[in-house]
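CO-FOLDING WORKSHEET

Operator: S.A.
Ligand of interest: copper (II) ion
Run index: 481
Mode: holo prediction, single chain
Checklist:
[x] sequence pasted
[x] SMILES validated
[ ] output reviewed
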Amino acid sequence: MLCRCVPVVALVVGAGACLQPPSIEAPPLPDDALPRVEGLAPIEDEDPAIDAVAYTLSARAADAELVTNAAPVQAWTFNATVPGPLLQARVGDDVTIVFTNELAEPTTIHWHGMRVPNEMDGVVEGEMRAVAPGETFTYHFIAPDAGTFWFHPHVRTNVQIERGLYGMFVVHEREADAPDVDADRAFVVDDISLDDDGDIAPFGVNMMEDMHGRFGNALLTNGSDAVATLSFAPGQVERWRIVNTANARTMILRFPGLSVRQIGADGGLWPQIACSPKEEIELPVGARAELEVRLAEGSTSASLSSVVLALDDNDDVVEIEVPLAEVELDATLETSSRAGHTANPTLALLDDGPATHTLTLSGANVPGGIEFTVNDFAWPEHEDWTVPQGELQIIEVVNRLGMEHPFHLHGQFFQVVSRTGEAVDDTGWRDTTLLRGQQRMRIATRFDNPGMWMIHCHILEHEENGMMSMVMVEPSSGHDM
Ligand SMILES: [Cu+2]
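OUTPUT RECEIVED:
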C-alpha cells in the first residue's frame, strides 16, 4: 500500500548507529516512584506527596544532537532536550508545572489530549494569553485520564514544534489496570526538514509546504535518527506508546518480525474485544497508538519501521521501510512469563445519528498564499458555536479538499461513529483522527468539559493558515468535569 496524499519527499536516512539497549534488569524503584518508562529521560518530580507531581520546565534555545555524524542542530527545547523530558503522573494526581519562557518570542504549553480546565489549555484566545519572553506561568490541573499524551506550544506551532518544542506526558493507570509487561517504552516519532548545512530549513518559502504541510527529510525517534537495538528475552512482552509529533507526515508504521496487538490509542487502553493484531498502523500527526509487542513466533530479529516514499537512483518513486528501532532475540536471557494487557476497561460506545452540527474544511488560493477555512472562516475569524455542557453532539466533519486533514478537538474526547456513511471500527476515545481527501465522517462527543475549545487541523501549516475554529461549552450546574 502506498502512503496516501503524501508528496514525494526523499528522506535522508541516518547512518543508524546502534545505541546500547536499556537494561532489562533495572534497579528497583522506591515505593512512591512513578513506573519506569524506557526511551525518554524522565523529569524529576519535585513534590514528595504520592498523589501529586511538580515539574519545572523552561523553553529555551539549545544545541541538539539529532542527526548522526552531523553538527548539532540549533533547536528550541524544553529543558535543553529534544524531545523535552518525559512528564508522568498517575491518573487523578495533582499536577503542577512551573513554566518559564526563555525564548525571544511568546509561547505556551498545550497538553494535547488531556482534559484539563480551560484556562490551563495553553491556547491564546479571549482572556488566555501567551507566556511572554522572560515570564513564568504555572499550569495546574488534575490528570483526569490515564493514557499517552503529549505537550507542545500553541503559538506559531509550525515553527515552534518543528524547532523541537514537544514531549510526551504519560498518565499511568491504577496498578490493577496496567498491563503486565517486561517494559513500558516510549517512541516519540518526528520528521524535521534540514537544509544543506544541517540547520532547520527556512519556513514558508515554498508553496508545497503551505499546501501539504512541511514534510521533513530526517526521521527522528526520541530525538535521534540513530536506530536503537532492543534485546528481547524469550517470551518478552512490552507496552509501546507511540506519538507522531511531525508537522504534517502521517506515519505508516509496520512491524516486520514482531507480533503486535493494538491495545489503545489517544484516550488510553481498550477493552479486550477492541484489541486486535496489527501488521500496519496509520498514525496521523498528533495521534497516539498503544501496542502490546512480542517477537513473532520463530523470529529472532525484527523492527519497528516507518514507510515513506522516496526517489530511487532512476528517479522512480519507491516505498521504503525506514527502521525506527530494531529488536533482537537474546536467547541467553531468562524466559519472560509476563501476561501483557489483560485488564478489560469499560468503553461505552456512542451510536451514529443525525448530525447536530457540521464542520466543513476547505480552502482557497489568496494573494500571497493559501487560506484554509472551517465553515468558510479562516482563523482568527470563526463561527459562533455554543453547546450546553454534557450534551451529546454528533458532528459531521466534511473535507471539501483533496488533501487529508488530521482533525483535532481540544478539551474533550470523541468517538468516530461513521466515515462517509459507513460504520467504522475506529475503536475508543480519540482527540485526533484522520479525515481523507473529499471524505466526510461523523464524530460523537458529550462535551463534558466546559469552556472555549479549539478545533483544528493538526497539519500545522493548515492550522496556522486558518484551519482552526472553536466551540463554547456553556457550563451547567449539573455537570462537573
Ligand atoms: Cu489540514
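REVIEW:
The chain has three domains: 52-173, 183-329, 357-474.
DSSP finds three helices and 31 strands in the chain.
[x] output reviewed
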